[in-house]
Design goal:
3-stranded antiparallel sheet; 23% strand; Multidrug-efflux Transporter Regulator, Chain: A, Domain 2; 9 helices; alpha+beta; 283 residues
Length: 283
């Protein structure tokens, strides 16, 4: 009988698999040898078993596990194979969505660092056109301007918990922003209104309903110390008054980068303070 069969080595070489793989398939019940020598334990295969080995390889390429392949082959039910493949298809799509989210997070981080590196020095006042942006946030439950950075950290934690509940991915990779109502800012009342993330268009078009921050001209000032925000925000308001710019919306503080190197350090930030402005045209 053995003369009509293939040794495990020949079967492995013919199908470009290892002997170890064929032994594993035997142990898992996927592909039993046609004959096993009771004295030597050597395995022998029929060339007709190549078709089953091809089917196993095909199912593995589709991403099915060995246990799923065994179940499908044992039941010989093509509808079961379809069901397993449908489940695998959804799993792959989920992995693609997660990879896309990670890719977006990496790109946001690169852009954030690049913007920080190329931004003006601390104290620089400027007039800039800023394109449309999307934000998603929550009302501030405490006014961190009347406290210290620890109060801000509590607000940030509340935001991130809410982001997790809402299903945002890569929550630590979004740029953070806070706002003060236009009326409060103009009257020198520093009362935190909202804390939010700057989301992207894909979030806006997905399941998350974001607010739109319209494009326009913004008076801006840059700084690298959280504790100096109020001082520079006042300089920003004076800059608008001095140049005849009319404030046209809420004040925004954008954390362009926020990296902590040591646990003992306070949060290191590079900020862009900004207000939308309009101009009075002559004639």
């Amino acid at each position: 009988m053995k003369n009509d069969l293939l040794s495990i080595g020949k079967m492995a070489a013919m199908n470009r698999v290892s002997i170890t793989t064929l032994r594993l398939y035997d142990e898992k019940g996927l592909l039993k040898p046609r004959y096993t020598d009771p004295e030597t334990g050597y395995r022998y295969y029929d060339i007709d078993q190549n078709a089953r080995l091809d089917m196993i390889a095909y199912m593995k390429e589709l991403g099915m596990s060995l246990s799923q392949i065994r179940e499908a082959l044992e039941k010989e039910d093509i509808s079961l194979i379809e069901e397993l493949l449908s489940q695998k298809n959804e799993q792959i799509h989920q992995q693609m969505r997660e990879l896309k989210a990670q890719h977006d997070a990496v790109e946001r981080a690169i852009l954030s660092i690049e913007r920080c590196r190329k931004s003006p020095a601390t104290g620089t006042l400027s007039l800039e056109y800023i394109d449309r942006r999307y934000i998603w946030g929550i009302p501030c439950s405490a006014n961190f301007y009347s406290d210290d950075v620890h109060s801000y950290e509590h607000q940030l934690r509340e935001l991130r918990l809410k982001l997790e509940e809402t299903g945002f991915s890569q929550i630590h990779s979004y740029n953070i922003g806070t706002s003060i109502a236009q009326e409060d800012f103009e009257q020198d009342h520093f009362v935190a209104k909202e804390i939010f993330i700057f989301a992207n268009r894909r979030d806006q078009e997905g399941t998350h309903t974001s607010q739109v921050v319209e494009s326009g001209m913004y008076a801006c000032v840059y700084l690298d110390n959280y504790d100096d925000e109020i001082h520079y925000a006042r300089l920003l308001r004076e800059y608008c008054l001095r140049n005849g710019y009319r404030i046209a919306g809420d004040y925004l503080c954008e954390v362009m980068t926020g990296f902590n190197v040591f646990d003992s350090d306070p949060r290191s930030m590079f900020l862009r303070l900004q207000v939308p402005v309009t101009f009075q045209k002559n004639g």
